[in-house]
């Protein structure tokens, strides 16, 4: 090749190689300083796409693990409160057993046990109402199946995990009735002392008692007899409870007359009637004044029908006919426990209030735990059945929560931790710098830059040899 001045091809070649080596050195410095071999799309388009997706998955897994841990805390809070309710119920069961021992317990002892049970019921309701995680209630039904009624005569009690969200028509076809007995004679003033026996409880009525005084005296024993007295205009006895298990037996030691209580010396026995009706146009089971749906979307819906207050005559029965709708909402707790869309689970926590526990036990005078009384042998026996049912419900709820925490939350969390470990390892291989390899490359590029600089310096001086030819 000839000697030229205008073009120094050797210098250009040296310069290009130096620029290439410098670029490679700068990339090595960037990879070493950032710790990543993929810093921009140009560093590896396919690797960048894979890495970004893995990064999103890693962040999602970390958040899902945190969500699962928070969910476990929620479940533990609810289960701890239910454990306390269970302890209270066991104590109440002991009191009911003690009260059943009427041969050794007088009226004062029974009243004391009833007072303690009433206090325990208040505590259960307080726990149910006040148990929260943050500001979210857990045991008042709002974290499970809750509902309301459009008619004032209907009270929504509870639903189950089988109950679907919806609005269900309530219709009463057979009214629930209280047991009721009306005296054969209208009392004016009692002429002599009288012993009136109602449901096995002896009530002494003093001579000279007016009709109003007789009614007041009978009602002093309502907690023991389960019977309420009223003027209609004669004296009428009616049970506080509705249904076929509500019963009145009454007999007096004094013949029926205007100068006595009017009930006479012949034993009178009567029972109430269980309600019948439909929920969502499907036949529902009736116990007392409670209707329970057993099929369809409304299955598990339980409502209480109120008494007919139209007149004194109708107060022994519930309202009848169409009673509006029971509006049910399944608000079970939703937990996002996976890194992707729709990877969620839910659990419903049933209402733990006393009015929702031990409901509608067949053959029982009490419709729920809230109604129990232990002021007589029969009441204490019925209370035992209701308390046992409540203990079973609470235990079942605790078991469901425990299974959910162990089998769903904790198992999935363990699985996600393993997935996170493997995903981080895979993303590291794709994106992060291998320092051993990169340092070797950096050293090589550094030597090439230094060498290239010297070569370029030499190449720029080759044209000076032309001066020697001119001299």
TrEMBL record:
Chief location: secreted
UniProt subcellular location: Secreted; Bacterial flagellum
Domain of life: Bacteria
Annotated Flagellin N-terminal domain residues: 5-142
Keywords of this entry: Bacterial flagellum, Cell projection, Cilium, Flagellum, Secreted
Flagellin C-terminal domain span: 384-470
Record-linked InterPro entries: Flagellin, Flagellin_C, Flagellin_C_sub2, Flagellin_N
Listed GO CC annotations: bacterial-type flagellum; extracellular region
Signal sequence annotation: none
Functional description taken from the UniProt entry: Flagellin is the subunit protein which polymerizes to form the filaments of bacterial flagella.
Protein family: Belongs to the bacterial flagellin family.
Protein name (record): Flagellin
């Amino acid at each position: 090749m000839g000697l030229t001045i205008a073009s120094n091809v050797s210098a250009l070649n040296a310069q290009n190689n130096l620029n290439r080596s410098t670029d490679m050195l700068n990339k090595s410095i960037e990879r070493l300083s950032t710790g990543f071999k993929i810093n921009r799309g140009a560093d590896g388009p396919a690797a960048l796409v894979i890495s970004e997706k893995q990064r999103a998955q890693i962040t999602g897994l970390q958040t899902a693990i945190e969500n699962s841990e928070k969910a476990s805390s929620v479940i533990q809070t609810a289960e701890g409160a239910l454990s306390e309710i269970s302890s209270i119920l066991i104590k109440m069961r002991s009191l009911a057993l003690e009260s059943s021992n009427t041969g050794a317990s007088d009226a004062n002892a029974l009243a004391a046990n009833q007072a303690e049970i009433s206090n325990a019921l208040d505590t259960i309701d307080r726990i149910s109402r006040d148990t929260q995680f943050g500001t979210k209630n857990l045991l008042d039904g709002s974290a499970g199946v809750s509902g309301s009624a459009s008619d004032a005569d209907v009270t929504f009690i509870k639903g189950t995990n089988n109950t679907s969200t919806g609005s269900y028509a309530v219709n009463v076809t057979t009214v629930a009735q209280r047991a009721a007995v009306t005296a054969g004679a209208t009392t004016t003033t009692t002429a002599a002392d009288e012993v009136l026996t109602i449901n096995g409880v002896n009530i002494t009525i003093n001579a000279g008692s007016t009709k109003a005084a007789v009614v007041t005296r009978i009602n002093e024993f309502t907690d023991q007899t389960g019977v309420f007295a009223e003027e209609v205009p004669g004296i009428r006895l009616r049970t506080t409870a509705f249904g076929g298990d509500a019963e009145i037996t009454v007999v007096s030691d004094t013949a029926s007359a205007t100068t006595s209580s009017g009930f006479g010396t012949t034993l009178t026995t009567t029972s109430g009637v269980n309600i019948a009706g439909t929920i969502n146009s499907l036949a529902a089971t009736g116990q007392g004044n409670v209707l329970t749906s057993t099929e369809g979307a409304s299955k598990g819906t339980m409502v209480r029908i109120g008494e007919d207050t139209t007149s004194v005559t109708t107060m022994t029965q519930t309202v009848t006919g169409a009673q509006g709708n029971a509006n049910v909402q399944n608000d079970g707790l939703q937990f996002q426990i996976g890194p992707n869309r729709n990877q969620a689970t839910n659990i419903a926590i049933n209402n733990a209030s006393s009015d929702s526990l031990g409901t509608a036990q067949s053959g029982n005078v009490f419709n729920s735990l809230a109604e129990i009384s232990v002021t007589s042998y029969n009441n204490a026996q019925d209370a035992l059945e209701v308390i046992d049912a409540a203990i079973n419900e609470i235990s079942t709820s605790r078991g469901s929560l425990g299974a959910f925490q162990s089998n769903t939350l904790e198992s999935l969390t363990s699985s996600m931790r393993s997935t996170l470990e493997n995903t981080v390892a895979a993303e590291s291989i794709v994106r992060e710098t291998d320092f051993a390899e990169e340092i070797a490359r950096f050293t090589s590029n550094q030597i090439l830059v230094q060498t290239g600089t010297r070569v370029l310096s030499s190449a720029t001086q080759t044209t000076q040899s032309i001066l020697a030819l001119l001299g």
